[in-house]
């Protein structure tokens, strides 16, 4: 019902997202994030605070 209402309003609803798992840009960003976290590990006490909350 919500879909029909939106279609009448001229709003296109797209349910399929493109697969970005092999996109070079995304893979580069992912690898940079991994490298950053390896170089700057999160202190152990921060994990304990999150678990206790």
Automatic annotation (TrEMBL):
Classify the source by domain of life: Bacteria
- UniProt protein name: Uncharacterized protein
User: Which species is the source of this protein?
Assistant: Dyadobacter pollutisoli
Per the UniProt record, the lineage of the source organism begins with:
Bacteria, Pseudomonadati, Bacteroidota, Cytophagia, Cytophagales
